[in-house]
């Protein structure tokens, strides 16, 4: 401004998101004539387009800036594809067994930091295989017991990529889960007990530190676990009251 250089100013800024999410899902189910076997094949594909941008709405010293000045813009895309197959089988009069397998592929396109801490366009692709197997035993019409084993994988969040360089980005996490339970329902109430053991590899947790670009870090814990017991009870002392 004239011969003066203004290095700071009061201003009003506005941060925007312009997001679009679209995709599709499908499934096809086949049942045997005796209705003891059911097979389902399905999947989904989705795209998330997220535009992050900021505008200067007003500035005390605006110089040559006219109107709303867009001072930053960051476009991000996430694609998510999966295909699965489920198999259910009635064995005898009391047993039901099932198997569920899924293949999933996740892709990120984003503006992030490289190893020289420069912001550049990058992309990451992750592939996962998630199986689950289980069975249920029917004692009678009111009482069942069940058990299952499952593996689940999950990708890091978007900001785990955008706010880290390749040297400090976390890995995806894996969960191995075992569950067993018992359910009973009667005229006066119901009871359910479920026990589980969850074993993680590379679980993502905050550790209180900051990374090489100054953001709070989520890091992988090599091994961690959770053990729990859940109990549900329901009592109906009279027809119109449920506790």
Indicate the topology.
Blueprint: E1 11-31, E2 37-59, E3 69-91, E4 95-113, E5 119-140, E6 143-154, H1 158-162, E7 173-185, E8 189-210, E9 216-235
Separation, N- and C-terminal Cα atoms = 74 Å
Radius of gyration, taken over Cα atoms and rounded to an integer in Å: 27 Å
Helix content: under 10%
Number of beta strands = 9
Strand-pairing-aware structural class? mainly beta
Main sheet: strand order: 1-2-3-4-5-6-7-8-9
How are helices and strands ordered from N to C? EEEEEEHEEE
**How would a crystallographer describe the biggest sheet?**
9 strands, antiparallel
- Write down the overall mean pLDDT: 92
Strand content: over 45%
Low-confidence residue ranges: none
Tally of contiguous helical segments: 1
Shape label: elongated
Structure commentary:
The structure is a single chain. A nine-stranded antiparallel sheet has the order 1-2-3-4-5-6-7-8-9. The protein has 243 residues and is an all-beta fold. It has one helix at residues 158-162, and strands spanning 11-31, 37-59, 69-91, 95-113, 119-140, 143-154, 173-185, 189-210, 216-235. The chain is elongated. 2% of the residues lie in helices and 72% in strands. The chain contains one helix and nine strands; from the N terminus they run ββββββαβββ.
């Amino acid at each position: 401004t004239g011969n003066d250089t203004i290095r700071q100013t009061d201003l009003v800024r506005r941060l925007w998101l312009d997001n679009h999410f679209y995709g599709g899902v499908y499934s096809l189910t086949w049942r045997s004539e005796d209705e003891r076997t059911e097979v389902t094949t399905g999947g989904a594909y989705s795209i998330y387009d997220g535009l992050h941008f900021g505008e200067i709405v007003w500035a005390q010293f605006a110089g040559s800036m006219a109107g709303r000045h867009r001072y930053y813009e960051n476009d991000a895309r996430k694609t998510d594809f999966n295909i699965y197959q489920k198999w259910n089988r009635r064995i005898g009069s009391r047993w039901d067994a099932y198997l569920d397998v899924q293949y999933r592929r996740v892709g990120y396109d984003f503006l992030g930091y490289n190893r020289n801490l420069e912001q550049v366009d990058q992309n990451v692709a992750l592939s996962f295989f998630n199986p689950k197997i289980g069975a249920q035993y029917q004692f009678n019409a009111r009482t069942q017991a069940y058990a299952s084993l499952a593996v689940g994988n999950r990708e890091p969040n978007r900001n785990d990529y955008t706010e880290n360089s390749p040297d400090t980005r976390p890995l995806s996490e894996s969960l191995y889960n075992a569950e067993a339970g018992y359910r009973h329902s009667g005229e006066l109430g119901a009871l359910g007990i479920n026990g589980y053991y969850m074993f993680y590899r590379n679980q993502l947790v905050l550790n209180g530190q900051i990374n090489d670009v100054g953001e709070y870090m989520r890091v992988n814990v090599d091994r961690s676990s959770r053990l729990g017991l859940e109990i549900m009870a329901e009592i109906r002392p009279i027809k119109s009251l449920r506790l």
